[in-house]
Amino acid sequence: MRGLARLLLVVVAMLAAPAHSACRQALALGLDVSGSVDMWEYRLQLDGLAAALLDPEMQEAFLQYPEAPVRLMVFEWSAQGHQRVVIPWQDITGPADLLAAADVLRTTKAMPVNNPSTAIGAAMVFGATELQTQSDCWQLTLDISGDGPSNIGRHPRLIEPQETGPVIINGLVIGPDGPSNTTKNRHNVKSLMGYYQTYVIRGPGAFVVAALDYEDFAGAMRRKLIRELQPAAVSGHPTGAGTSIDIADLVGPVPLDPAQ
User: Fold this and answer.
1) pLDDT tens for residues 198-210?
2) Which candidate, 215, 191, 205, 188, places its Cα nearest to that of 242?
3) Which of 210, 206, 195 is nearest to 241 (CA)?
4) Which candidate, 88, 82, 89, places its Cα nearest to that of 32?
5) Is 0.85 topped by the overall pTM?
C-alpha cells in the first residue's frame, strides 16, 4: 500500500506539473576527498559509485519514470573553497547515461590534497546552492559522504535553513577501519553516524547510511541511491527534521561523540 501511495503521488505530480517541468529529482552526490583520503580510498569511492550506478536494481530505480528523469551531479569536496565538479548536471534518461557517468568516474584522476581539513559545512552550502539552480525539479536531494567530522569552517549545525532551502540532505558515513583513519577524532562508525544524524542531515525523511569501511562503499552507495530514488512520500515531519537512520549493519544505539 505504501508503494502504491507513492506511485499515485508521482502520477498526480506529473499530471499537475507544467509541461516544461520534466525533472522529478535533482540529485547531487558530494564525495569526501580531504587529505585523510589516500589514493586507494579515493579510487574505492569513485569506482564504488561507478559500480553502484551500473547495478541493475539501482538503474531500475533511476529509470522507473522516463517521462520525468532524475538529474545527476557529482562533486568532490575537502577544505573550505575546495570543491570540484566531476560530473556536471545531466538528465539520466537511459542506461547509456549511467554508463557514461560510470566511465567518467572510473577515469577521473585525483587532484593532490595536502590539506587534512574536512569542511562539511562548506560542502553542504556548495551542494545546496548547486541544487537550487535546478528549479524545474520537483525534489532536490544532496548526499554528503565522509569519513570524519567537520574540523574547519562553519560547523554543520551553523548552516542556516535559508542556505539549504528545500534541499533534503542525506549522509553516507565511511567507517574507521581503513589504514588512514586511525587518527580521526571519533570513537567508531556509530558515533560518526550520530554526528551526521544530529548535525548534517536535514529535511523530511532524511537518513544516514553506513559503509563499515571503504571496501563497503559501493554497497552502501547502492542501498542509499535505491532508497532515495523512491518517489517522495508525504511526511509528518517538519522541514529540517531528519529522523531516519539506516543501521542495518550495526547494532545498539548510535551515540554522539561529545568531543565532536
Assistant:
1) 999 999 999 999 9
2) 205
3) 206
4) 82
5) no
